[in-house]
Amino acid sequence: MSGFRAFKAKVPIEWSQSLYITLVRGLPGTRKLHRRTLEAMGLRRCHRTVLHSNTSSIRGMIQHVKRMVVVETEEMYKARKEAEANHKALRPPLVVSHSIPATGSSSMS
């Protein structure tokens, strides 16, 4: 599953007071106007998330670069972060032992 589909909003963003905006596409090869819009929103690197209040100007900026960003409400963002934390917690710790196991009797001539 691509990063864009993993975070895609399923509810209208007009209902939320705050929006979490994540840049999921890279900046190289994009139009200068799109890069300036992303920089104005505070998104300079891929997979970075910023928090903005839900205003008409921010929604217009999001509409301008909608193919490059993913918008989440506060509940969606918290649920995704909790799922990521649970996924990391399920993995057992990696233990590496570099010692040579001792054998009972080793007769070397």
Automatic annotation (TrEMBL):
The keyword Nucleotide-binding does not apply. SUPFAM superfamilies: Ribosomal protein L30p/L7e. Residues 88-109 are annotated as: Disordered. The keyword Nucleotide-binding does not apply. Residues 100-109 have a biased composition (Polar residues). GO terms for cellular component: large ribosomal subunit; mitochondrion. Keywords: Ribonucleoprotein, Ribosomal protein. Gene3D superfamilies: Ribosomal protein L30, ferredoxin-like fold domain. It holds the Pfam family Ribosomal_L30. Belongs to the universal ribosomal protein uL30 family. HAMAP family: Ribosomal_uL30_B. This is Large ribosomal subunit protein uL30m. The lineage of its organism: Eukaryota, Viridiplantae, Streptophyta, Embryophyta, Tracheophyta.
